[in-house]
Design a protein that fits this description.
The protein is of the alpha/beta class. Helices cover 34% and strands 17% of the residues. It has a seven-stranded parallel β-sheet with strand order 1-10-9-6-2-3-5, with helices on both faces. A three-stranded antiparallel β-sheet has the order 4-8-7, with helices on one face. Helix 7 crosses helix 8. The longest helix is centred in the N-terminal third of the chain and has 18 residues. The structure holds fructose -6-phosphate.
């Protein structure tokens, strides 16, 4: 694993955006695996700036997102589709037909998951997967205890995740109880993975995930088994990791 440590969130976002840019330049029709959450927002902002300067062309890029709330319409501001449109897709020249987020409105869970796995397969898999890291080690919506062998599935959101995400909704009651997520197996099949971490609140989980035992109790720990992972973070998030390895 390679680790890039930047002074702060802004510079860590630039490093992550540089890696994505390199991917897009080297393979213009690449498949990007994208994430929502607070962490990648700075990365997406940087990509938009470089696109506006004429340095990047997304016209042939395909994207496949990690997850989506079940039962939430793409028009709902809390949907991950809405997030991706507003934080990235609407501002660049990616063809929306080439952008995929699980279909939160599909009531048939098995069909929703099967269809998404087929989308991933028919695109030849993800070239570069972007991940954030939950405070409990989750990646996508794969919470502690998730089996490592799953592809896309429907997950019951834990109360802690619902509470953490309640900040985006009018009340806790409005936070969906289920989501569709790429499983750990789907994530591990990406050819290259970039994990972005920022802030002191992530320092302990970064250490546990990348230096601790590989266990479903810390879903991100499985990334230690992937042969091409880049960890990009700011000093605050990487401080415990560096204290342990130095
Ligand atoms: C986002 C996702 C989540 C987030 C994680 C970290 O699509 O699947 O796993 O990456 O919850 O969220 P932030 O970046 O808000 O700390």
């Amino acid at each position: 694993m390679r680790v890039y440590c930047a002074a702060d969130y802004y510079h860590a976002s630039r490093v992550a955006a540089n890696i994505i840019s390199a991917q897009v330049i080297m393979k213009p029709d690449c498949v990007l695996g994208l994430a929502t959450g607070s962490t990648p927002i700075g990365t997406y902002e940087q990509l938009i700036r470089w696109y506006e300067k004429g340095d990047l062309d997304f016209s042939e890029v395909h994207s496949i997102n990690l997850d989506e709330y079940r039962g939430v319409s793409p028009k709902n501001e809390q949907s991950y589709r809405y997030f991706m449109n507003s934080h990235l897709f609407d501002a660049i020249n990616i063809d929306k037909k080439n952008t995929f987020v699980p279909d939160g409105m599909e009531q048939d869970k098995e069909k929703a998951c099967r269809d998404y796995d087929e989308i991933i397969r028919s695109h030849g898999g993800v070239d570069l997967q972007i991940l954030g890291l939950g405070h409990n080690g989750h990646i996508g919506f794969n919470e502690p205890g998730s089996a490592f062998g799953k592809e896309t599935y429907c997950v019951q959101l834990s109360e802690s995740t619902r509470t953490a995400n309640a900040r985006f909704f009018a009340s806790l009651d409005e936070v969906p109880k289920e989501a569709y997520t790429m499983g750990i197996k789907s994530i591990m099949q990406a050819k290259k993975i970039v994990v972005i971490v920022s802030g002191e609140s992530k320092r302990e989980i970064v250490k546990r995930a990348f230096l601790g035992p590989i266990t479903p109790e810390v879903p991100a720990s499985v990334l230690q088994l992937h042969n091409d992972v880049i960890l990009v973070g700011d000093e605050a998030a990487l401080s415990a990791y560096y204290e342990a390895v130095r």
